[in-house]
Amino acid sequence: MKHEKISNYVITYGSLIAIFSLSILIPFDYNAGFHYLVILEVCSVLLLAAGILYFWYSKNYLIVSSGILLILYFLISYALHVNHSYASLKWYFLLPMSSVFLLGFKRSLAANIVFFFSFSWFALQLEGQISNKEIFFVILAFLLVIITSLLHEYTRFLAVEDIKKISVTDPLTGVHNRRFFDRELTIAIQSSRRTQIPMSLVFFDVDHFKQINDRFGHKTGDSVLLALTSLYKENFRAHDRIFRTGGEEFALILKSDQKQSELMMKRFMKMISDDDFLKGYSCTVSVGIAELIDADDEESVMKRADDLMYRAKEKGRNQIALA
After folding, report:
1. pTM of the shown model
2. Catalytic choice (248, 249, 262, 314)
3. Which residue among 167, 201, 224 closes a domain?
4. Could you list the residue range(s) of the whole structural domain that residue 255 is in?
5. Are 143 and 190 part of one and the same domain?
6. How far apart (Å, rounded) are the C-alpha atoms in residues 91 and 77?
């Protein structure tokens, strides 16, 4: 939500500043006899105003930001064509930073290739106004601005991706956390109803986990949780994802009906019992499985799966409870 508000302000106020600046330039360019440039500037003002309205209606940041960058590119290029001077060429240095800011790293990479060749062509036309050595260094300076802008955006992109990953990942087990589970459950329910593919929600809990911690220590308890998640990821389909939703509680979103989910969980429970996590001490889990039904929403299917898991515990643990 915060990022969306920032995008709204950037597009709106950036476009308004551009409209205001162009409106000031129009009468000066008209008096100077640059009539084609005036036509381009008037069209740009109208397009920017239309872009603001379209953005607030559609919230399509990419289309509007690309449009703003194109307008800026053609305005600067045409201004250089009309008034071909070394001073005018410096306006091109706005483009690399603007493209990175508006489009991000990947899309601005292609845009900056175009900008570099356009800039180089205009710079080479200055032969006679400035020396070849100055032309070389101004092209080199523009290339360095492009590289610096892209590197800055790339490091920012990596940092944002790391933050996103950390925010949805359980630090101990490396599987997704409750925050990500809540979001993915909504998507899975919508997908199941759209495609008519069955979906089951599984909650399972490590039995007597407090006793494991008390007897063997918290480090061993952590090792058990890590071993369980590793065992699951190594032996089951990637799209049947596992999430850590609490201390020793986990959730699975399965693309299968209740019967298939039960067979899968029986197999998983056998793997757990066959794997000697604690060297002689039996490690088991209690499981609740709720298949998505028409009346379900996120809250109801979670409640059913959670109630079933606790029913399995009440019946003696190390078993599966079904709806």
Report:
1. 0.64
2. 248
3. 167
4. 178-322
5. no
6. 9
d(CA 83, CA 175) in angstroms, rounded, equals 59
Judge whether residue 198 has pLDDT over 50: yes
List pLDDT tens digits, range 106-137. 888 888 998 899 889 888 888 878 888 888 99
Looking at the 3D structure of the chain, how many domains does it have?
2
Q: CA-CA distance, 309 to 1, in Å (whole number)?
A: 35
CATH number at residue 247: 3.30.70.270
Among 59, 72, 50, smallest CA distance to 8 is for 59
Indicate if 244 and 217 belong to the same structural domain: yes
The total of other beta-carbon atoms located within 10 Å of residue 296's CB is: 19
- Residue 299 designated active-site: no
- Residue 64: name the closest of 79, 48, 80, 75 by CA: 48
Structure token pair of residue 201: 């929600």
| CA pair distance 99, 65, nearest whole angstrom | 9
Q: Dihedral of CA 205/210/211/214: which sign?
A: positive
Has residue 172 been placed in a domain? no
> Residue 134: inside a domain, yes or no?
yes
Helix, strand or coil for residue 319? coil
